[in-house]
Design brief:
68 residues, mainly alpha
């Protein structure tokens, strides 16, 4: 859904997908569960960085910023 929103340049839908992903990993235990399923050692400090990155992506999408 994120790729489709990006391809169609639907900024609100794109931002909503970034926020949805951030909520998917809302709890440290959520990310740890996903990491465990792929045999990846989870670092909880990376969890916060990951969520923050998704939220920043959403804000930049809505602001129409481009990091070219």
């Amino acid at each position: 859904m994120l790729k489709q929103a990006q391809a169609e340049q639907m900024r609100s839908a794109e931002a909503a997908q970034f926020i949805s992903l951030a909520y998917t990993f809302n709890q440290d235990t959520d990310l740890a569960a996903f990491a465990n399923r792929v045999d990846l050692n989870s670092d909880l400090s990376l969890t916060n960085i990951f969520r923050q990155t998704l939220m920043i992506a959403a804000m930049r999408t809505l602001d129409g910023r481009d990091d070219k």
